[in-house]
Specification:
Strand order of the largest sheet of chain A: 4-3-2-1-5-6-7
Largest interface: A-B, 37 and 45 residues
Number of helices of chain B: 15
CATH superfamily of the largest domain in chain B: Aconitase, domain 3
Number of domains of chain B: 2
Oligomer: heterodimer
Distance between the termini of chain B: 53 Å
CATH topology of the largest domain in chain B: Aconitase, domain 3
CATH architecture of the largest domain in chain B: 2-Layer Sandwich
Structural class of chain A: alpha/beta
Low-confidence stretches of chain A: none
Helix content of chain A: 25-40%
Radius of gyration of chain B: 20 Å
Structural class of chain B: alpha/beta
Strand order of the largest sheet of chain B: 15-14-13-16-17
Strand content of chain A: 15-25%
Shape of chain B: globular
Helix content of chain B: 25-40%
Amino acid sequence: MKITGNVWKFGDDIDTDLIIPARYLNTSDPGELAKHCMEDADPEFSGKVAQGDVIVADKNFGCGSSREHAPIAIKAAGVSCVIASSFARIFYRNAFNMGLPILECENADGFRTGDKLSVDFDTGEIILLEAGKSYSTKPIPPFMQELVRSGGLMKYIEKRIQ
Amino acid sequence: MGMTITEKILAAHAGLERVEPGDLINAKVDIALGNDITAPISINQFRKIGAKKVFDKSRVILVPDHFVPNKDIKSAMQAKMLRDFAKEQELTYFFDAGEMGVEHALLPEKGLVLPGDLVIGADSHTCTYGGLGAFATGMGSTDLAATMITGETWLKVPEAMKFIYKGELNPWVEGKDLILYAIGDIGVDGALYKSMEFTGPVIEKLGIAGRLTIANMAIEAGAKNGIIAPDDITEAYVSERAVREYSFLTSDEDANYAEMKEYDVSNIEPQVAFPHRPENTKGISEVGEITIDQVVVGSCTNGRIEDIRSAAAVIKGKKVAQGVRLIVIPATPYAYRTALTEGLFDIFLDAGAIISPPTCGPCLGGHMGILAEGERAVATTNRNFVGRMGHPESEVYLANPAVAAASAVLGKIGGPDEVLK
């Protein structure tokens, strides 16, 4: 599995209230949530982000609440992958359960908004296309990739039951 | 090599002799919990894959507490989903209307989460129950859906960090200050993926309310769980309310810890966490002049009757400062009624406070006390992220109930000694 997209760069400790503020949690509709994705970190984000783009952040991305609305909002906004130096654990789990692939990359702090990159989930290789620089990360294990390909944990369970 | 209490609980629920950090296990779950924000997604998932029955109707608990009493039509629809599902599935424990309390204050009080349990909840503060000696961790709605069907969940055994608290507590220092101090020390990702175990003579003397407060905020350091070994104090609390059998497990002396931290609490004064991270802590004497617009006493962190009493003791006979709104939210019907019968409501009402029914409400910027642009609040809650209690340009300072009450009287952040002198 491979993706290519433009980078939107954020800093340390991007919490779930920045990803999707609680004032919008009276719905779980992905389209509604996408409209407010990253709103308190960058109010224009949902208007600027394009299908396939990549969010890159520094340490502890997704800290705070257990709201699955966070990866739902990011995925529904069209983001194909999140790369960060580290992730908060509930977000990490939720992202895969929602079918949103995420990668830990210790060099993520060097990426900038506007960079174009490609990610190969089988090898864990990230390539900054204009600079031609390559970064290796721990690849996503096959069963987690299967979660993503299936569209999340429930679809994966459903397939196994049948 | 011995095992930690966390490892023992996980091994017992996975049917294994022993587990080690990094092991992936499939574990049986004692209690699976959801609320009005997270459970609607779980219920939709449950229905979508054609599941018919929850694994055990006495072990799936739903508490609509976040946007309840319903703040708008959409919130009412979410609460109704829980109500309908609870009825359809004949859930033994569904807490609606007058029985509803903030979930993590309510479940221990009802004897529904117990020492030795493995609890998962679609709410990050599920880790609260570690204060009783349970392994409890927050997950997402989809994980909850899977557990509602199977009664199981997969977990990675976390590495452990040990926190030892020694020395004599200073006046007005409560469980809240002990956990804020630790978060200030290690940072909001200082325990990422790890288990935080709280020990030492200070913890051994601390009451259950303080222990629940400490475990509650383990997530604010990124931890998977926070835990305190059960003892006589735990036994006295759970024996009169437990609905099931429970088991006391403790860490072996030769258990393995990735990291140890030792604190002399005689150096710890009441703590205030500045915006916008719980790690931005200062001692009350270092705060300086910070005027405030609102004070909130409540939440799963500090909304128990002990917390309400602590705030009342400071504010008794005093008035809330001009221009400050003090909102007191007893977290459960028990806390509410007890505060009423003990005359604490008179104290708060005489002071000019607002008393709210149990709800998570303003803690997450839901309702019942939202901040306007540029406003500042002192809150006994758990998070001070950007926009957490309302406008993205508002600010939240975290503190214990006594400091919150004192600040309400002073109109600026300050300690109880300034009010009671």
